[in-house]
Every structure is written in structure tokens, then in C-alpha cells.
Amino acid sequence: MDSPHPTGIGLGLRSAFIEQIDGGEADGAVAFLEVSPENYLWRGGRAVDQLARIRDRFPLLGHGLGMNLGGVDPLDDRFFAELRRFLDAHPTPWYSDHLCMCHRGAEFHDLLPVPFSSESAVRVASRIREAADRVERPMLFENISYYLALGESAMDEPEFIAEILERADCGLLLDVNNAYVNAQNHGFDPYAWLERIPLERVRQLHIAGHEAWDERTLIDTHGASVKEEVQAMMAWVVERIGPVPVLLERDNHIPPLADLLAEVAELDAIYQAAIGRWRGDAEVAAVGGARHG
User: Is residue 1 part of a domain?
Assistant: First the structure.
């Protein structure tokens, strides 16, 4: 990746605490902020002014909600023109959105999965390439949580993700909480799933809290602290790929900013320990290579 990018633990910028971020209460406490442009497009006023000040103090990463990368309708010209203006004004080394369908003539109220097939992979990869051309920066896509499989699939999710990455020649925003939730709900080993993902394509991680719907189903609510199991998965990935930006998402039951910053610090300790192990492994490999050179 040619453009500089942040590493460490970041926080998604939310209206619940933007006033405090603007006032400096998170300065030095988070590595970056992630912004969803849909919250600012076609708007003016206080929130836009606050973001203009915040972008001067924090690295920003852009993460979208409405590209509809898994859809079949043409990409929205008006949306992309406004998004490009936003990204030009708020520099970010890449832009990410979800591997999902989110509208078809009308907006859906969830991120819907797409069939795991080569036909879908070809379509999605083409849309990712077109999106990257339109925003004139690299694109990442994010694996989503899903609660119902779309019938019999010709391939499984890791195969599907790998094919899209290859065809689109793009990066992956790996949401480890989504992978964990899906593993519990659909009965597979999350680490076996991770081992089949092209980790060399991972540019960013998301982590979040989930909650139990009933005794058999987990829901990706972004409404609780990150569970230890998800923290461990984050560390497992970081040990293997090294420094990347890791985002803490919180969208429901948002606690006071001080509590979020305490969780950021806890996650950063886990992250830094994983980086230490990654550096140790890299040094061992380099010494071994030198001895055999």
C-alpha cells in the first residue's frame, strides 16, 4: 500500500461523542478515527464543521454503508459524485464498504448476504473495480455477519472471499467479530475459517461486541464490549500480518467516551503484545534466512 496509513486501535466517530472528540478529550488516546461518509453527505451545519476540525488532528479512514457492492443495480452516479467530493476533502488511504446487498429500488434495513458462487464473485469484483475507479483510491470490502444461509452454495465463504480478492485485486477489511458470530451461529471453527482467508490481503480489522439473542444465536449488535474470544482472534491475526489499523465499533448502548477510551487502551495492550510476537517471529525468520543465505 503506497499511501501512509495509521496502525493501532481506532474508534468509529459517532454523534454520541463527536462533541467531546472535537473538544480534545480523545487526543492522544486513539490511533485514528473511522468515518462513515453517509452521515455527512449532502449536509452542512455543526457536524460538518466539527468533522473539518477533527480531521486536522486525527488520521481518518473512510468506511461506507451504502455502495451496494453485492447488488445488481448500476452504481449510483449521484452518490459516487458526492462521495468522491467528501473523500477529496477528507483524505483517507483507502475506502471500504461491505460485501453485501443493501438496496434494490428501496433501502433495506440490514446488510444482506449474497450467494457464494463464482457468478456472484465475478459481478462483485467488477463492481469493486468500478468503485475504486470512481473514488480514485484503493477499495477494501468487509465480510459481514449473516443469519441465514442462501440455500445450497457452490463454494463456502472463504473460497468466495478469496476469489473476489483475486478478481478485484483489492484489499480485505477483516471483521473478526463477524467471523466469530457466523462461526457460532453456523457451526464452524473460526480459526479454521481464518486460516483459509488470504491474510496477505488484509489491510484493516474491525472488532466489536456481540450479544446473545437466545441460547443458540449470537447477534452482531455493536452494543457491548468486545468479548475475550474476539480479542484473541484479533491477536491471532495481528501476530501473522503485523501492524494494521484495528477499529473498535460501538453503535448501540454507547457508554461514556471515557469508558470507550478505556476499552481502546485495553485492546491496545493486546494489540501491542501481538505485534511483539509478530516482530519476534519476523526476526527469527530473518536470522534463519541469513544463516542459509
Answer: no
pTM above 0.90, yes or no: yes
In whole angstroms, give the CA distance from residue 55 to residue 261: 19
The C-alpha cell that represents 47 in the structure block: 457536524
β-sheet bridge partners, residue 206: 175, 247
User: Helix/strand/coil (H, E, C) string of 131-195?
Assistant: HHHHHCCCEEEECCCCCCCCCCCCCCHHHHHHHHHHHHCCEEEEEHHHHHHHHHHHCCCHHHHHH
Is residue 185 one of the residues assigned to a domain?
yes
Residue identified by cell 468506511 is 63
pLDDT tens, position by position, 197-241: 999 999 999 999 999 988 889 999 999 999 999 999 999 999 999
Place of cell 516482530: 279
Domain assignment present for 270: yes
Which residue in 120, 110, 101 sits closest to 147, CA to CA? 110
151: DSSP letter: S
At 132, give phi and psi (nearest 5°): -60, -40
Residue 125's CATH number:
3.20.20.150
Residue range of the domain that includes 246: 8-291
Q: Does some domain include residue 3?
A: no
Separation of alpha carbons 292 and 287, rounded Å: 9
pLDDT (tens digit, 9 = 90+) per residue, 245-286? Answer: 999 999 999 999 999 999 999 999 999 999 999 999 777 666
Domains identified in the chain, total number: 1
| Helix and strand totals (H; E) in the chain | 9, 12
- For 140-196, write each residue's pLDDT tens digit: 999 999 987 766 778 999 999 999 999 999 999 999 999 999 999 999 999 999 999
